[in-house]
Design a protein that fits this description.
The protein is mainly alpha-helical. The protein has 8 helices and 2 strands, in the order H-H-H-E-E-H-H-H-H-H. A two-stranded antiparallel ribbon has the order 1-2. A hairpin with an 8-residue loop joins strand 1 and strand 2. Helix 4 packs antiparallel against helix 5, helix 4 crosses helix 8 and helix 5 runs antiparallel to helix 6. The radius of gyration is 27 Å and the shape is globular.
């Protein structure tokens, strides 16, 4: 019993000493002491209102806001579609994949995944099968690219990441067309298969080439701007 009582008394004494020291700092006439105390209080206030440390890759209110901005941009870009290959006007290109890649390079694979998925949510209510395929292609393109760049944060790493993403994106695009297109386009798998070499492969190569070139040119300036 005496040990517990002594421990409690010691803890109480330490607490009183900390309070006394804090009071002394605040009452000190030395401007440096007051500035230090104010800075410490400000840091504690920021910590209590933050969900993480953005620079460390964790969640923060600032990072959530930036993710929301990327999602909004990608979502808007997904509605701006235009044909890029003669003879197949129903295959259309949009810029949303570039935004997903830049988000992945700036904030990592999780950002790429979040932007890729959420940006296509509105399309699920208008063209669910097409939206599912677009989400899959976007995820398979941007997430592997971001994973490579996360390990090799150089321009070479960015180039390798884009190339890896293109390979996975092509697999997702061709596989998605073979699995999903027959469901809603009233075509057989054999008919879609005949379109792979002359139509689907060239279209997706052109699409990913545009994504890759634009991303490689703009990702670094945008990353530097976001990190300021």
């Amino acid at each position: 019993m005496s040990d517990i009582s002594d421990t409690q008394n010691q803890s109480s004494t330490n607490g009183n000493e900390d309070t006394t020291n804090s009071t002394k700092v605040m009452e000190s006439s030395d401007p440096k002491d007051q500035e230090l105390a104010a800075s410490s209080a400000h840091d504690k206030t920021q910590s209590s209102h933050s969900t993480g440390v953005a620079d460390k890759g964790n969640w923060s209110t600032q990072r959530i806001a930036i993710y929301a901005l990327f999602v909004a941009l990608a979502m808007a870009a997904s509605f701006i579609e235009f044909p890029i290959m003669p003879g197949v006007p129903w295959l259309k290109y949009d810029l949303s994949g570039i935004i997903c890649l830049v988000a992945g390079f700036a904030f990592g694979p999780m950002a790429a995944f979040i932007v890729s998925v959420l940006s296509w949510i509105p399309h699920l209510f208008m063209n669910p099968w097409g939206a599912i395929m677009s989400i899959a292609v976007s995820v398979f393109l941007s997430v592997p690219a971001a994973m490579v760049y996360k390990r090799m944060r150089t321009r070479v790493g960015a180039l390798v990441g884009i190339l890896v993403g293109v390979v996975f994106g092509l697999i997702a695009a061709i596989g998605g067309n073979l699995l999903i297109t027959p469901i809603y386009a009233h075509m057989t798998t054999a008919q879609v298969l005949k379109m792979v070499i002359p139509v689907l492969l060239p279209f997706n190569l052109i699409k990913f080439a545009i994504h890759g070139v634009v991303t490689f040119v703009i990702y670094k300036p945008i990353s530097n701007l976001l990190n300021r």
